[in-house]
UniProtKB/TrEMBL annotation:
Residues 63-96 are annotated as: Disordered. This is Uncharacterized protein. Keywords: Membrane, Transmembrane, Transmembrane helix. The chain crosses the membrane at residues 7-28, 34-57. It comes from the Eukaryota. Residues 63-88 have a biased composition (Basic and acidic residues).
Length: 96
């Protein structure tokens, strides 16, 4: 069994014997890099699976960054529109 990534309260574990991923409860540590607890009896399919999963997670991180950036732009635009609406209300109400 290989510990692939720790995420808050869970660890993603890959088992080459059963060729499956599973989530297991773990301490809430944030680990950015992937690491392997045991480095013996790794076959080609396991390595391919680990690399594929790593690529998937990296792409997911990029996608999350892109979404966060889009959200920040949207919030900024909404905030500016809200301020513009307040100014229009002030002008329409005679400066009150």
């Amino acid at each position: 069994m290989y510990l692939i990534k720790k995420i808050p309260n869970f660890a993603l574990i890959f088992s080459p014997s059963f060729f499956e991923f599973s989530l297991a409860p773990a301490p809430a540590w944030h680990v950015v890099q992937f690491f392997i607890l045991a480095f013996c009896h790794i076959d080609i399919s396991s390595i391919f699976c680990l690399v594929t999963f790593r690529r998937y997670v990296i792409l997911s991180k990029k996608e999350n960054k892109r979404r966060e950036k889009a959200d920040r732009k949207r919030e900024k635009r909404e905030r500016q529109e809200g301020e513009k609406d307040k100014r229009l209300l002030t002008v329409c109400n005679g400066g009150k």
